[in-house]
């Protein structure tokens, strides 16, 4: 049986309050052995930390998401740094994220986003943590910025939907590309062509639950239970078997976070 890690979820969101335990039990049955929870605002950090501390399958990342710019307070960057320092060396705290640049939202405050982005990149450099990045319509400025901050451990470009050229730039900068349900939609033809050409060593799997529902459960709550089927559909686009792609992504994810793949099987 294939083993999977969902590298990007918001399983702490209220969408899962009614049945989180049964979702996780079902994940385990399906081989989805590890699930990452994203910190998006200072207000969800305690929640994801208590979830990750109480459950072997859950890992936490802490960050300040660009879409929630209005909710961030001036002191939040210092609070983030304090928290990362406090959890230093604790394997449950596995990355800084989710953060990045989003130029897709209405009227983005690019200057403010950039400041927040760079402050968190600085922490990733300082603390040698992987960075889990949210990038929408902002690949060029993201790549330009990453070239100025050399992240020893790289990270993940979550829900990657850029071009092959952009993918190559990220890979050169030490990043992996997070792929999920978006590619299961038949109309995503450009993405299908790019995915077919990406090097297997750069790929990791994610759902972004509860968002980004795959085509096979349209307009429903996305859950990490969908990851095995997403993997199968991605593998078909690449002319690989689902087992091959699952094994490769597991290896890539464990390498990034410095985890043992054998401990998961
Ligand atoms: Zn996210």
UniProtKB/TrEMBL annotation:
InterPro entries, per the entry: DNase_TatD-rel_CS, Metal_Hydrolase, TatD-like
UniProt keywords, alphabetically: Hydrolase, Metal-binding
Name the UniProt record assigns to this protein: TatD DNase family protein
Assigned protein family: Belongs to the metallo-dependent hydrolases superfamily. TatD-type hydrolase family.
Keyword set includes Hydrolase: yes
GO MF term (any one): hydrolase activity, acting on ester bonds
Native source organism of the sequence: Halopseudomonas formosensis
CDD domains named among the record's database cross-references: TatD_DNAse
Positions of a divalent metal cation 1 binding: 8, 10, 98, 208
Taxonomic lineage of the native organism: Bacteria, Pseudomonadati, Pseudomonadota, Gammaproteobacteria, Pseudomonadales
One Pfam family in the UniProt entry: TatD_DNase
Gene Ontology CC entries for this record: cytosol
Residues noted as binding a divalent metal cation 2 in the record, renumbered to the chain: 134, 158
């Amino acid at each position: 049986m294939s083993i999977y890690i969902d590298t990007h979820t918001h399983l702490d969101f209220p969408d899962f309050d009614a049945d989180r335990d049964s979702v996780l039990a079902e994940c385990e049955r399906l081989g989805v052995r590890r699930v990452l929870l994203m910190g998006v605002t200072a207000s969800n950090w305690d929640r994801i930390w208590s979830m990750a501390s109480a459950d072997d399958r859950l890992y936490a990342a802490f960050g300040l998401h660009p879409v929630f710019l209005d909710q961030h307070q001036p002191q939040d960057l210092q609070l983030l740094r304090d928290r990362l320092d406090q959890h230093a060396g604790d394997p449950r705290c596995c990355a800084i994220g989710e953060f990045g640049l989003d130029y897709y939202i209405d009227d983005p405050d690019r200057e403010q986003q950039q400041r927040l982005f760079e402050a968190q990149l600085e922490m990733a450099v300082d603390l040698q943590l992987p960075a889990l990045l949210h990038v929408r319509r902002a690949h060029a400025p993201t790549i330009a910025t990453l070239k100025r901050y050399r992240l020893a451990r790289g990270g993940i470009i979550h829900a990657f939907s850029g071009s092959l050229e952009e993918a190559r730039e990220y890979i050169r900068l030490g990043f992996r590309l997070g792929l999920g349900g978006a590619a299961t939609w038949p109309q995503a033809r450009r993405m299908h062509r790019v995915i077919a050409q990406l090097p297997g060593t750069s790929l990791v799997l994610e759902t972004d639950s509860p968002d980004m529902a795959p085509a096979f459960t349209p307009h429903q709550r996305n859950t990490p239970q969908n990851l095995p089927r997403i993997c199968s559909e991605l593998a078909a686009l690449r002319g690989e078997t689902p087992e091959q792609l699952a094994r490769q992504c597991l290896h890539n994810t464990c390498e990034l976070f410095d985890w043992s793949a054998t401990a998961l099987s």
